[in-house]
Batch of 2 targets.
Target 1
Amino acid sequence: MSRPGTSYAEVLARRNEIMKASLGIDYDALVTSPIAFDYDTMMAQTEYSLEDIARIQRETKVGETPLFELTNLTDAVRRTCQPGRGARILLKDEAANASGSFKARRASISAFEARRRGYAGMVVATSGNYGAAAASQAAQRGLACIVVQEVYDSQGVGQPEIVEKGRACEAYGAEVLKLSVGPELFYVLLTTLEETGFFNASLYTPFGIRGIETLGHEVGTEVTARFGRQPDVVVVTHAGGGNLTGTARGLAAAGCADSRVVACSVDLAGLHMASDHDFNRKSFTTGHTGFGVPFATWPDRVDVPRNAARSLRYMDGYELVTQGEVFYVTELLTKLEGIERGPAGNTSLTAAISLARQLDEDQIVVVQETEYTGAGKHHNSQLAFARQRGIEVRRGDPRENVPGRAIVIPERLDQVRTTPQDLDRLRRSYLRNAADRHPVAQWSQTDVAFLAADLKVTPDWVRSHLPELEEPVEPAATQDRAEVPR
Amino acid sequence: MSVVAAGTWVELERNVLEVGERAPGLPIDTAAVPLVLRVSGFLLEPAEVGAPARVRTLIGREQEGCLRVVNPSYSHSFGDTVAELLTIGREEQR
């Protein structure tokens, strides 16, 4: 037998067979058209109950993290709003998971599944906390782990946060393939899966999403028990959509039907995600609009045939914050609440401050994650690096932030104000992306029903918004298209 | 050039995709440079810096490339102090 071709096109052409071998999920059986597939069956096929997932996670130091009430921060917020306003802000300290982030929840089920099915190891493509999570979980399950990571620009320079993430992966015993900038991270993932026969522990399989359901469930049950009410708002840092999807599903399982699930991303409009030049001009490597918007408006752009993370299916609101605001809030958390946590996890805390101000005092806003901090993964590291690269860093009005050029850190707490995104605009963008893959004239009733469920609207809404597909509608935040899974 | 002994922890570098072999539709700046991979491991045979070499990685796989760094280390830090951060929190405290 001749050796299969290794060119970019040849490897990509084999993606479906590589995926099938490395996942053991037959996506073809679920798919009914270029758009629609049976989402609920796919999620149910994991065959794990929520109790099973919690038990598996307990075995590898995941879950049951503390839920802190941020009383000093809440008081500070109340001093910036009308009397009677200023909801209580709670924080789920996910940094307490093995490897220091909620991503351990996602990796834990994949590692368990890989082990159960007899794979010798697993491969992940990520530049985020997920690499360390996968390496840590694989180590505990006796599996080899390979992390494919986008680390450097063409000058060999990597920003401190990503370098630290790579270090953590190696610390947990993983082989780390450190790449320069480009979406061909996916190509390297495919060739590595083919070479090794390892499990594809993608962030976007049903295992990767179901592992987060315990997070939402813990939040829902603990808030209800301690405070006698469901969380009014749960804020989720949003990139690929898994965090939001899994959390919302877990909240629903805890009976929190009235809790609003609000996404939050750092606004990085204007920076191109695949640009070698822009790579080190971003001070956030995830949780930003460069992933958040394209993954919301077309989830199936990932390293599996159908994405289990479908954020618009569960999203009740979407807020944008600036880089400077998140750095300010990270410092504030340290000074007022006495805990140092990494900035990326504080994206949702920043939105929570703004949302709490609009709610009543007896209401509850939950920030559902934190991440570990340390050298490299620290707001001072990132700001010092940005300044070194010629990016202006100063105190002032955060509205003056320009991604890649100026990071303006608020002077006062009342300047922390999020910008809401128009969800209908995102939904219309999604429909246009669907039309690009499957002409509207060919949409069946099943397609329309799938789209309605995927957008949290009625089939009539979908039908009444078809004409708008003819007009260009772009989401407000960014026109960038990420094709790299994180 | 001195020879690095077998068994030494080193970092290799190789081009995975050359310019012209890369994915279609890349931004111009990215398309103009190769996709480079770096990976660390224990050197399998003695080799010189800059010369082709093979390593065994932490999980036991073999990797090939040019020997780039002997004893690769992490030196990322908290960075130069950003004084603008230091006063945050004082004004918000009671």
Note: Strands of chain B lie at 3-4, 9-17, 35-43, 47-48, 52-56, 62-70.
Target 2
Amino acid sequence: MILLSNSFREPMLEMYKFETNQLLEQLEQLIINSEKSNCYSQEAINEIFRIMHTIKGSSAMMLFNGISTLAHSIEDLFFYLRESKPENVDYIKLSDLVLSCTDFIKEELSKIERGIEPDGNPDESVNIIKAYLSELKGDGGSNAIHENIGEKNQKDADKKQKYFITHSLSDNSEKTPYKAVIYFEEGCEMENIRAFSVMHSLKNFVQDIKSEPEDIIENEESTQFIRENGFKMQFYSDRAYEEIENLLNETLFLKKLELEVVDKTDEANTNKKKPVIDLESDRPNMAEAIRPEKEKEKEQSNKSLLQNFISVNVNKLDKLMDLVGELVISEAMVTSNPDLKGLNLENFNKAASQLKKITGELQDIVMSIRMVPLSATFHKMNRVVRDMCKKLDKDVELEILGEATEVDKNIIENISDPLMHLIRNALDHGIETREERIKKGKSHKGKITLEARNEGGEVIIIVKDDGRGLNREKILQKALDHGLIQDTGREISDREIFSMIFLPGFSTKENVTEFSGRGVGMDVVSNNIEKIGGVVNVDSIVGEGTTMTIRIPLTLAIIDGMNIRVSNSTYTIPITSIKESFRVKEDELITDPDGNEMIMVRGDCYPIVRIHKLFNIKDSVSNINEGITIMVESEMNTVCLFADELLGEQQVVVKALPQYIKKVNGIAGCTLLGEGTISLILDIAALVKIK
Amino acid sequence: MAELLEEMELVGEDSQKDKFLTFSLGKEFYGVEIRHVMEIIGIQPITEVPELPHYIKGIINLRGKIIPVMDVRLRFRKEPHEYNDRTCIIVIDVRDISIGLIVDAVSDVLDISSQDIVPPPEVNANNNNKYIKGIGKVGSDVKLLLDCEKLINDEDAQSLFNMQ
């Protein structure tokens, strides 16, 4: 067998990985949903069949035989389910089986990602599937053997498929035969590979592709032939002429395309003379033919969608993001240049506002490039919950809210592990056993809620369970025993105690289980989240459950900010959190015995936080009626901030404080103002809690 | 200053060995290994950041990059000194952390070979010694060679930062 060279594989590999990963995720979702409803609907079976078929095909083409073989055996299994509609199927076993296979494929994919040859042996899984299939069929021996033979033939067929990407002869009577000749631009090089990818892109829409030259990949001379005579193809398709034409026109370096409909009888003759090798056994063919038209269309739209993707190095995006940030700053530097003060510049202002509009749009686009919805990450948790429920014999439902919330790609990468740990923890430690729950008068089914939402420049992710809650005393005792804290005799707040579960080496669970209890998980959680500048808070009520709240600031975001001045320092408040600003008269000020200041606005009393007191700034306005009071809100908490004056609204690029400084309470980050000076961005969420 | 910078850029990895940038704090002369030094800039407007130890004066904008600055005088518990036009910020980079060191004045880049460096005397009473890696002899002068890592990654600095 001739191995296709790596240079040929490279560009397709990215697409293969992307596509297969997506399909696997889809598959997992399908299985888990089906399992929940305790039956596999016809659509689900069709869909799983289709996914496996695609994975099989593309893996075979990439020469990943292990994956392809395994996918093939699952495909067989679902083919049987679809066609014979057997009753009394053990769906739980089926789900386990398929999930274990997806795990295998995932493992192989990760090998590919790391640049290692995927060398896992699927035989064991294949045999289990076969055994299961024959069990389903009810007549073990002969069928299994038959199956094996079929398998062998198909394996051979798969091998051949690498050379000829064609689907078998199907019923072509209703399809139109086409003939196409493609001429590539001179000097575009690698004509044979380009021709091959043209055939590949056609394979989902047409049948029985024959090409001239035939052995485009392995025959060196084919390149020369294509260069001179063009690349000729004959195929059948039920697609309209225009559709095929459009498809072929997408070919890179296309110089000329000749596409024509061939006379049918003529075609039939050539067909007889040159029989096409039947590449796949009958069953998948039937599948092809039976597959509802709608699904095909859907697939096509998927396909064209995929072809519009390019993978870009994230570093480039980061750089782009930085540059746009600098652009915004320099735009402000130009348009609010002190030299322009007092001048009446009508044309300049027009041009400036145009520039502003464009940079604004550019920003939005760049931001949106990096934003990814959390749904994929969230849905992965379904699998975690399912597997653990099985092992721990608990009955838990995972509720997912706000999965459409979009966050920066960096955050997605860092949030997956912590979430998994939190969910495992909630399931293992939090949710009680069925009996215990019933005894406590709770529903026997536990519930874990996974929620995400945007709030004032932050993403909040909540993992909530309705389990037994955290035991304050037990945690405290454990922390003391392990010497994680010193007994100072002072009162420790619940939150402080609960946050101890994030300390390394902490676990209240007496027994270490497969999933948790070693006390490693939770400090991984807090570490990972700190890495992206977030914080985790724990709230818990004994007997009612635990809520973990992860707050992640959107680093490197561009926000609308209000700049305020306190003495010589400038601070920025995110516009989203400002409710109003006003001047307070001295006699409106209420001071309690502890010296805390408050103000009554429209019947509600709000605390006043003087920024100069909070941050210890000298030489600032201290007379309440000389400065300005800004009412800010976060998470239903409202406070009034007191500053010297408002400087104006500006779009600012949020930069993190230098790593060395780590986190300062009340400061979310910093930004550069027009003149190059630094303004600190106030962390309103933290400020409302200081009060 | 310009020549000094040029000279620094010219010296490659190999030739950076045994080279120290020296600066003055009051009467004493200190040296930092040249491989840590990124650049030297004049004193700049510093943005104060609340809740930091007193010797971290705040942050500065170094061509779009925001870095903290440390007043080395205050770090060594010396009397603060009014900044003037000789005051410099030496930007050093230690394990990917960039930080500016505010010093009274920058003097020279010197070659101090390892045989001219002696360990600091063990005087427990003197707390400052822990930031000194060695003492370099240059002619009749003595330069205190700083341990940059200890200077910025000190335990008491850590505990201060963790206090929230």
Note: Chain A is about 45% helix and 20% strand.
